[in-house]
Amino acid sequence: MEQYQVGILGGGPGGYVCALRAAQLGLSVVLVEGDRLGGTCLNRGCIPTKALIKSADFWRELQQVEEFGIRAGESSFDFAKMIERKDRIVHNLVLGVEQLFRTAKIPVIKGWGEITEAGRINVETETGQVRLKVENLVVATGSTPFRIPVPGANLDGVMTSDHILDEKTLPEKLVIIGGGVIGLEFASAFQALGVKVTVVEMLPSLLANSDDEIPRRLTSVLKKRGIDIFTKTMVKEIKSAENRLITVVENAKGIQEIFSDRVLLATGRKTNLCGVNAQRLGLQLEGGSIVVDSQMRTSVPNIYAIGDVTGKAMLAHVASAQGMVAAEHIAGHQVEMSYRAVPSVIFTHPEIAAVGATEQELRTAGVKYKVSKFPFSANGKALVLGETMGTVKILANEEGVILGSSIMGPQASSLIQELVLGVEKGLNAEVLAKTIHAHPTLPEAIMESAHGILGKPLHLA
Ligand code: NAI
């Protein structure tokens, strides 16, 4: 039986980061993974979707090049080649992670593992069973798409984000069930590639947890582009007839049938506890997720859990941060996981990003706050880019301390980081307003919005 100080079940952005950090800290580590390293994020989620979104954005921009004085002539695209490019990027990144493991001398046991008791993992590999004895066990088994329990959810052509990017052809019409992060990223990209997209959401608005303004503005942008959006609408059934799918929905207007070639289920994800034997181990669960403390310890000594299985924010960067905390705690460091400043980013067009409190959260909590909004239409670089839609919104307390922010607009996913630092460190908006920002750049919109908290932005009439 092989023995290690740390054994990790699952090689996604939680597990593999935890393994690398533990090895850096001098611990002997083993990682068990049944699939390729990188987990959902690298193989089926963050990276492949962003690769396709880049292709879609390129195509969208190509339609607008005349505005930039360019005559491109006849142009077309090859969806299968876009998918090939996505596969190459994923492949290269997986090879990169494998190389990191080789350099750090971390063995990866390839197979599906089962925790038989605290400190013991059995792995079924192609060459037989491997039995591991580990001092500390880290559960990093992630999550899987949640398939809504409606008739027809398992029909051919009804797929989740796990498989839709394996398709080699584009559908003519696509129904997306769920107007959350996954649904809207796919809606934005597929519409750009000419697909007729319909989004069906059961709640009154898209992106229900975002700052109120975001779903309102985004809904209007997406509708203008020709995406049909049904909110407060329940899916009753999915049927198949003559090679087409029919999604039967019900809302205040009654029952309607929506025809499409494919249906994407984007109705959230559920924790994956396969091989964990949570009950037998006595792991405390809440709503199907493993309960952890701020050092990522579960209710069972020497068993840690990180990533989507903990049911916190199901985000790759949160999983990685939790993985670092678990590794460092095992190595004897005094560490604590903080969720104070977790960025969330949505790669629609325009991009959306947020951190900290939303306006409605502050209202509900009775916190007195100031709000400032600076539009990209008043930012020189945004004009140069031809991307003037959206704003930088900052929320601060009465003293000016930044409490939250939401950005909709060009490169929002990168811009948010300045505000993440602001929320994490409890910075006053004055710090951002008085920090020199290079000109002409998009971050100047953040500086201007921060000026708005102090009084008034300079470049706004
Ligand atoms: P989500 O929770 O963001 O959205 C699911 C949506 O489906 C909700 O709006 C919900 O009301 C709706 N819904 C549920 N059942 C429904 C039904 N029967 N009919 C109509 N609508 C229904 O979950 P999503 O989009 O599947 O994403 C899963 C996780 O992955 C999230 O935690 C998300 O944050 C994460 N993710 C993050 C990304 C990023 O950081 N850019 C990209 C993709 C996913």
UniProtKB/TrEMBL annotation:
Its EC number is 1.8.1.4. GO terms for biological process: 2-oxoglutarate metabolic process. It comes from Desulfitobacterium hafniense (Desulfitobacterium frappieri). NAD(+) binds at residues 178-185, 201, 268. The active site is at 439 (proton acceptor). Belongs to the class-I pyridine nucleotide-disulfide oxidoreductase family. The lineage of its organism: Bacteria, Bacillati, Bacillota, Clostridia, Eubacteriales. Residues 342-449 form the Pyridine nucleotide-disulphide oxidoreductase dimerisation domain. The active site is a redox-active disulfide bond. Keywords: Disulfide bond, FAD, Flavoprotein, NAD, Nucleotide-binding, Oxidoreductase, Redox-active center. The keyword Transmembrane helix does not apply. GO terms for cellular component: cytoplasm. It catalyses: N(6)-[(R)-dihydrolipoyl]-L-lysyl-[protein] + NAD(+) = N(6)-[(R)-lipoyl]-L-lysyl-[protein] + NADH + H(+). This is Dihydrolipoyl dehydrogenase. SUPFAM superfamilies: FAD/NAD(P)-binding domain, FAD/NAD-linked reductases, dimerisation (C-terminal) domain. Residues 4-323 form the FAD/NAD(P)-binding domain. Its cofactor is FAD. FAD binds at residues 50, 113, 141-143, 308, 314-317. Gene3D superfamilies: 3.30.390.30, FAD/NAD(P)-binding domain. GO terms for molecular function: dihydrolipoyl dehydrogenase (NADH) activity; flavin adenine dinucleotide binding.
